[in-house]
Amino acid sequence: MVYFSKPDPDESNSRELHYLFRKRIKESLIRLVEKIAVFLKKDYQVQIGYLSSLIIEKKFSPIIYYFYFSLLEFIIKKEQLKYSEYCENLCDLLPFKNIYSETIVINTLENKAWEKEYIENLMKNANRPSFVTQATDEQILESKVYIQKALEIINKANKDMFAEIHDHVSSIKIFAGDYDAFSGTSMKYFGNLFFKNCTIDADPVLYFFESLIHETSHLHLNILMAFDPLLINSKEHFYSPARDTIRPMKGILHGHFVVYRLVLMYLAAYSYRTLFNNRIDVAENLDFNVAIGKQPWNYSTRLEIFKFKFIQGDELIRQHAKLTPGGQELLDNMKDNFEKMIH
Asked: Is the whole model's pTM more than 0.85, yes or no?
């Protein structure tokens, strides 16, 4: 049985949901190409046959999702030349050797179209002049070591979270440069995580521990929202206590789900805190009005901040969100579980 309103990581549930998501993407992609073929009066049987051969039991690489969501955007924007070109060259744009992911590949930016598009969007949304570059070989190697240590701690603390990461994540792109955000992902590049190499005053193992949980939780909620929008007023804007800025309700719900998962995992990993390079100490200099991104990288401090931000987020969403029945159930389950965790 699949649970759409279960907020905690669950290996079998995560795997089944991801399987159903791949099935939906494959079916939807085939229908899109069929409709385009009819509209353009073209013969795309080779392309449709190629898509029909996709094995949904295997994990798709981000290139599948990039192709699908790009095609959708071209159709919505009525860019006939682009979606015609995508369909004509479908087999070349989705080469067989690149459409599945067996393991999590960690490297840097490779100048691929979807990577460049993501970075361009980052720059457009930056709050100040910023730039992003490829990580050096040394930065990649260091990041791999720290990510592996973070994954070991996650596995010890919560094997279901560890399994969800390996099920949902296909690749991690390490980048360098001058940019405020530490990590990111997107439904359009599903399965890929973008991590900035750790340059801040933080234990790099803790830095990647949090980044892995944070971005994988976004991926999981994206899957849930593919089956149930959870929100009716997703585009309405409200103040976000987690970021100390105005955000659409969809972003606030995403942030709330992430904060819930971080409370869960910070508590679960507390017994393994000595593995975080002994930089775990008592919470200090607590300022609950500061956005999470600007909080100090003190394990105990961040845990207390996450607890406080969760309570704020729950109150905000209950006051302003227009939830579907599934969204309400998910929100209630998070609150009930949170109260059990902290008592």
From this structure: yes
